[in-house]
Structure formats: C-alpha cells, structure tokens
Amino acid sequence: MSEATKVPGFAAPGTWIAHAGVAHAGTTHAAAPAPAPARPGPAVDDDLTADLGDGVSLLFATPMLRLLMPDAARVNPGLRAAILRRAQDDDGKAISNVGGWQSRNDLLDWDIPEAAQLKTWIAAAVRQMAQHSPLLRARAPGTTRFRAYAWANVNRDGHYNRLHLHPGEHWSGVYYVDAGQPDPAIANNGVIEFLDPRPTARAMPIPGFKFDRGISVVPASGMLLLFPSWLDHWVSSYRGPGERISIAFNCTLE
User: How far apart are the first and last CA of the chain?
Assistant: First the structure.
C-alpha cells in the first residue's frame, strides 16, 4: 500500500480492511479476523477522513468551503455595475452557460478596487483550505505559488449552466455578487448542484444510503464557495425577475 492510500485506523493488520492496497478486478481481500473496531491512527496525508465513532469512518471526503464575506455589501455594488457595463459592450462567451452572458476570464485584472478585493478573498479562501493539508501547512510562508483567474456570469429568467467540471485546475469556486430574485414557488430555483464523484455508487445502490445523489447550495449575495476542480456541478434554471450575477474562478498551486 502506498502512503497515499493509507487512512486513519485502517493501516495496521487485523482491522476489517486488509492491508493489501487498493482493490482491483480479481483482488481477494482477507476475511475480517475480529469484530472489534480498530483504534484510530494519525492522519497520513490530509484531513479527508472523519471518525464517526463505533468503528465507523468516512473515507474519501470531498472538501468544500462556504463563506459569507463580511464586507460584501460594500464590494458588490461596484462589481455589479462593472459586470453589467461589460455585458453591454462585449458579446461574451458561451461555454457551460445556456443563455445568459459570460465574460472573458480576465476579471481579476479589471482596474477597479472591487476586483482587487475579490482576488484577496479568493487567495484567503484557498489559504484556508490549504490548512487541511499537512504538506502545505509545513511550507514556509511565501513558498507556495498561487495563480487564479475569474470570469463573470449573468443569468436571467430561464438561463442555466450545463453539467461540467474545470479540468487542468486545482481549486474552483464561485462568488455571488447578486443572487437576484428567484421565484420561491419554484423548487431548486437557480441552485448550484454538486454530484457524487464516485461513479460506481450509482451502479450499485445500497438500501438506506443515498451515495449517488446531488447536493445543492442555495446562492446568496456575498457567498463564496470553493471546491475541487474535478467535482461535477451544474446550475439549475434561474426563474425570476432581475439578474443572477456571479463570478466563477479557477486556482492552481505549486
């Protein structure tokens, strides 16, 4: 077993998971020698496991950071005005968006103070997420190189974003400048939904457990989300007056 595949409480012989490595087709695991739960051990390479007690652990956790930025009320009006001005002068791009408007990916370079503030927030969010990696925590300040870029999205009534991910990046996220006025009578109106990244979960359902399900987040003005770039997500149709204005971003670390 490589260091990357060891998990707390399951690395020592005699636990209910064999010490033989990751299962492949045709691999036979050792039978469980005893029903007693193993004593949890130290984390090996990150904080992506959770001990629920009684010998039960959560493995392969997917981290997500969700923040409400305290100074959003001051920053959002400037971002909103700048984005709508750009939308009037630029045809934009169509990538995952169906309808609506998407800017070029140079938003963090716009010459407005609000863009600089957003870049500071993104860097702080990535730094906060990095604290859950012992490797990154151990680095001397200033030795981790950070790169980010962002683009604006404007969705109006009926617009949505197809299922997608962000290949070639490490962390992705979205900041909500203006959540709009979604019709509360419509279920899942304009939510961002993340899908379970384990494809075999949908092939072999287990009664009582909803492994293969989507988890939705209801947008709010001033909310910032950060998640792994490989996590599939989509945005349901926004139904209501006004605009849903958000800023998506990608980040890489070295």
Answer: 26
- In angstroms, what is the C-alpha Rg of the chain? 21
pLDDT at 45: 53
Q: How far apart are CA 50 and CA 27, in angstroms?
A: 26
Residue 249, helix vs strand vs coil: strand
Q: Phi, psi (5° rounding) for residue 102? A: -130, 130
pLDDT at 181 exceeding the cut of 90? yes
Distance (Å, whole) CA 225 – CA 37: 36
| 56 three-class SS | strand
Helix ranges restricted to H, the chain: 72-89, 113-130, 134-137
Percentage of residues in the chain with pLDDT exceeding 70? 82
Confidence class for position 35, pLDDT limits 50, 70, 90: low
Q: pLDDT, tens digit, for every residue of 42-52?
A: 444 567 888 88
**Could you tell me if 51 and 41 are in contact, meaning their C-beta atoms sit under 8 angstroms apart?**
no
Asked if 180 contacts 115 with a C-beta cutoff of 8 angstroms, the reply is no
Closest to 42 measured CA to CA, from 73, 72, 7: 7
Residue range 80-139, pLDDT digits in tens: 999 999 999 988 888 888 899 999 999 999 999 999 999 999 999 999 999 888 888 888
d(CA 167, CA 172): 10
**This model's pTM is above 0.70:** yes
Pairing of strands 214-217, 192-195: antiparallel
In DSSP terms, 174 is beta-bridged to 225, 248
d(CA 79, CA 230) in angstroms, rounded, equals 27
Strand partners, 192: 217, 235
